Amino acid sequence: MRALVWHGKEDIRCDQVSDPEIEDERDAIIKVTSCAICGSDLHLYHNYVPAMLPGDIMGHEMMGEVVEVGRGVNGALKKGDRIVVPFTIICGECDQCKRQNFSVCERTNRKKNLGDKVFGHTTAGLFGYTHLTGGYPGGQAEYLRVPFADATHVKVPDNLTDEQVLFLGDIFPTGWQAAAQCDIEPTDTVAVWGCGPVGQMAIRSALLLGAKQVVAIDCLPERLSMGAAGGAITINFAEESVVERLQELTGANGPEKCIDCVGMESHVSLAQPDTVYDRAKQLMLMENDRPHVLREMIYVCRPAGVISIPGVYSGLVDKIPMGQAMNKGLTFRMGQTHVTRWTEDLLRRIVDGQIDPSFVITHTVGLEQGPEMYKVFRDKQDSCIKVVLKP
Amino acid sequence: MNVVAKLTNITRSPGDPKVLQAGPSVAGAFDGLARKLGWFSIALGVVELVGAERIAGALGMSGKQDLIRAYGAREISSGILSLSVDKQAGLWSRVAGDGLDIATLLSAYRHDNPKRDNVGIALAVVAGIALLDIIGAKGVTARHSRRGTKPRDYSDRSGFPAGTAAARDFARSERGQESGAA
Q1: Do A306 and A200 belong together in one domain?
Q2: A305 and A230 belong to one structural domain
Q3: pLDDT tens digits, A219-237
Q4: pLDDT tens figures, B116-139
């Protein structure tokens, strides 16, 4: 079969690979009908996330048709079922899964010893990601083996298109969780840094969760236009001061809820000297991440507010103003997404017509064009916001 | 097939797909040039750092050893940047560095310098490399730039089939149900 394979920094290729095989009775194999390139795939593309190996298959946003099931799937799935695959692999049985903390499932990281050493405790296995999270082959491929398939799936109805439901596997629940963990009140201003795909979902989620006003922050006109379409007031940080504008919009109180949809690769600009400092340290391997957005959120957030972090951070960050955060009494909520905690509710909202996540798709191409689309997406060319691949 | 990818198969389980035939790289020619210039820059920088005395002697620039070492550090920084995802910045910093190198060499291209011929050769080499750097920098910038295309207007993509006002109504209605249930 064909698959998009990581060969090194900025080197993803469409390779011929062997087909996946059932190796555990809880496995299933799907024929992938749609998959997508995620913003966090770019961190792997740039080799900022440790423990990627040449030969790793990319992709953690995918859906398809079940073509083979192991004996242990026990009727939870059958051939022909149409499923979205959550990017977090879950057993459904461990203590964390029972608490719905699915992204820290205790059993699915098959390289648990690595996870334990690096993170202190293992996290869940993830598709198409680093070997620290199991090194599971991803779904930017024609076929995918889904481990723990009896628990790791979302069945979707036939009357919805792939484009409407594909993002239930990652960016929609990720944006939703980012907003939900803010505990939004009807009087709240929610500020969202980064109007990429997760930011767009967070903007709409905050609106659906009843925020008084949502503010979207980015520097790319096409992304800001999409944010505004979702009901947000926009701030172009290349043209105006984020801090001053947020003060204006909130009666000088600051936003009660701040969401970081940027993560480790914040925009580098001479106008924001800390970003240049971070980039220089990152180049010298003295810092993993560029946390400009975190610093800005801590500074501007209203005291007793919430900082929500769906953006990916990989390791060590520098110059975080903990004194500000502590004295302002801020609450930090973060983590990989507990996808399955949210999917039933989000699927209902799609079926009810509250939201149609397909709005975010700007490019649809075949799998063989995937490597070039990584570049287009990374360089933000052709107003690219979300790429869907059709294997 | 890719030998490194084959070696990494020891980390994979029996049912995992394995690379049979690697596809073509989509890296452009200018990305390749940036990589070569990056490594060249690092190598040259190391030579300038450790061989500053000999370089100064060969160019009749005694007393300029520290300057040559500083240029070596600059070359290494530019090289690292050229090998990174910010390769445009790396290559343009190399172009700027070439300008500094040429200015410094011109100051040594004096009739009273007994090593004037060596300086002339060095100037020719630096000029040739500067040309490569300019070609690479312009090529990489063009390949990765978003300039030249007008940003699209996505203001018709609300994602709310019934509109944003209806989305706010959904929120009020669901919040009302929650507080009612409580």
Answers
A1: yes
A2: yes
A3: 999 999 999 999 999 999 9
A4: 999 999 999 999 999 999 999 999
